[in-house]
């Protein structure tokens, strides 16, 4: 049912006492009666913003009396470190937003969404609010989306840098991992359970293991991020700067995203070294129980044997020794390397401990892929059971291609549309790539994904290869962006390691020759893979050597095929696999 939603009332003024007094006087004498009533007597939302180191700082709030509340802010500028003081030293602006349907719950939701959007904007350095406060059902909650869209559109027209196009905001990695998302009921229940468990463990000084199982796209990162931020907000209220809470993730792109979130929400202003990879965390914190809480996102990426950068035997064992409460987030279907392989008894030690302590949580609701159950079942059958069922044709688009070139052109078309600009070509690791080294073939400038169809060649550089062509300013610009957010990466191919943990609007997946179709089954051929970290043998806990290459290559394909929010495009290099997929795509 479409609703006719009236326009919001938005006024922008200089952010100082004189301008506020003039605005109050003006609104009383010159504004139309209904607008005057909405600004003077209804709840409003407001945005203070001021320039800070070539970016903006912002504070978003809501109030039943905008004039009294703003004067309070002006009078709170005594301490140098307060945002009010810093704002008053700058050329600040104030947006005041009203709407005839605003009530307390609706303004809180608008405030929360504005904070969420603004922390995801490249040009925003820091959002100075405390925690968000998303609301449950209320009247008129069904109007919220329409009202917010009108507010953001009008703000965007006022300042495109501070309020960019909504699609750009929603495509950012920071937006997707933000702790300010409104949680699902499943996530909210888990959050309450975990926050209570952490509080109890800290009060009793008890060691606790919390274990979260969840497959790709079930909202693990948002839940993790939300609890992490909630704990810091609680400590901020107590003014406890001794609190040690760390986020550990063995993934360069995810470290970047979590670090940016911590920076934008002001956590790193008071608390140092809160986000890191596992080895860095272990080097910084050597004493037992020296950290209050540690969150391990993507714990399946931790090393379970020594390697070049880690001299221990198991990173999870080492992290657990250093923290009083450990939150482990795990998905066994995303283990990609032999030195990250988990023997069942190794991970069950921690899962069973969490079950014993009533701290085991499983997330099941698929939040990434906007797909129906039949489509999700098709992807599960392909990536887990190694069978190809008939491809369903519903709103979620699965397309099979005869050539990588046509797939690439289709992904380019999607990326040129504002609604699906975060569309990229990605591939399994069946072509050589050595980071930081030049290709052995002197005639090649880049490590490439290289496909021959008879005498026709299609080739495209692997991820991070085109960065060498950027100038200093361009490199600086992309520093805070995830791989897929960088504009030039439309001309690259992403790998499993680059895209793991991230979303794409449309994923164009090229399956190399390690993925074959024989006798009615998908089979994996490690001899065709260039992923040495997945194909070498592993020494087990009992001293025997085993190979899990086929299982790890299967995980690699699942990671790739669960990235697309709106669609999945596939080209298979293996002739029999390509024909089986084409047959599965034919309409009845």
From TrEMBL:
InterPro entries in UniProt: GIY-YIG_endonuc, P-loop_NTPase, SLFN_3-like_DNA/RNA_helicase
Domain GIY-YIG: 41-124
Any Pfam family matching the protein: SLFN-g3_helicase
Protein name: GIY-YIG domain-containing protein
Organism: Blautia obeum
Organism classification: Bacteria, Bacillati, Bacillota, Clostridia, Lachnospirales
